[in-house]
Design a protein that fits this description.
Elements lengths: L11 H4 L9 H15 L1 H4 L9 H21 L4 H13 L1 H6 L3 H25 L3 H25 L1 H31 L10 H6 L5 H13 L4 H28 L5
Helix pairs in contact: 2-8, 2-9, 4-7, 5-7, 5-8, 7-8, 7-11, 8-9, 9-12, 11-12
């Protein structure tokens, strides 16, 4: 989910490229690579062998995202501006869903995701920053929650319980992802090799493409939101459970700094 998101487990050495010196080297070393990796999450998954749909979907959209980012750069549009604009458009999903304008909500969701892809490409072209990476991942998490909240508002009687369960599952995937990222960076892990290949695959069950696919399905078939939300929540719970299990055992085999 959240989207987000086991690529942070891989290639930490690449993330550290271009880091500047800092007096408090430990804190800087902990924060900068994590934020940089989070901000480039979508395209970095292109190199991941065990994701679900992302490895097929992302190559298809990489070229148009690059083209849009080139236009933005030519017009002196910065990555943070794209991030904030996409977030504002994304928040308009909530009132759209509340009044039952599901097609408008769908368009806004897709626009938000395009803006999210473009800001990452643009940041890499012009130079990624810590504040930009922080802004990107924070607003992404809020957007994902806002979409689910909007469907709860649209039909509280039928959707509220399923929406609550989905938000709970989002919390599990997001927290396990971020917690492991911090621990992995603290231990200077360049790559995590899970002993069971099947578990590594399942831990990526709910990736970015799956999240967008479910959001699209929510808008196309809003009358079936509850069933779809429970199904997606199950995927997220499975992903979070496997991530916690594999992350705990991976870290237990590493010596403390």
């Amino acid at each position: 989910m959240m989207g987000a998101t086991l690529t942070l487990l891989t290639d930490y050495n690449a993330v550290g490229a271009g880091k500047t010196r800092h007096k408090d080297r430990k804190d800087h070393h902990l924060v900068r690579p994590i934020l940089s990796k989070l901000s480039t999450l979508h395209l970095s998954r292109l190199t991941e062998e065990h994701c679900m749909l992302d490895r097929w979907a992302l190559p298809l959209i990489q070229k148009p995202l690059n083209q849009i980012a080139d236009v933005c750069q030519q017009r002196d549009i910065h990555a943070n501006q794209v991030t904030v604009t996409g977030f504002v458009l994304g928040l308009l999903v909530v009132p759209s869903l509340y009044v039952g304008w599901y097609w408008l909500a769908l368009i806004l969701i897709l626009m938000n995701r395009v803006f999210d892809g473009v800001d990452g490409v643009l940041a890499r072209q012009t130079g990624a920053t810590d504040q930009g990476a922080f802004l990107d991942i924070t607003l992404d998490f809020i957007f994902y929650a806002a979409v689910v909240f909007g469907f709860a508002l649209a039909n509280p009687a039928d959707n509220a319980l399923a929406a609550s369960a989905l938000l709970l599952s989002f919390m599990g995937t997001g927290v396990s992802f971020l917690a492991f990222a911090i621990m992995a960076e603290r231990r200077n892990l360049s790559r995590i090799q899970y002993p069971n290949k099947g578990i590594y695959y399942l831990s990526g069950l709910a990736e970015g493409t799956e999240t967008i696919a479910f959001f699209v399905a929510f808008c196309l078939w809003p009358q079936h939101f509850a069933v779809l939300a429970w199904s997606f929540a199950g995927m997220c719970v499975l992903s979070a459970t496997l991530r916690i299990w594999s992350g705990y055992h991976s870290l237990s085999g590493q010596a403390d700094d």
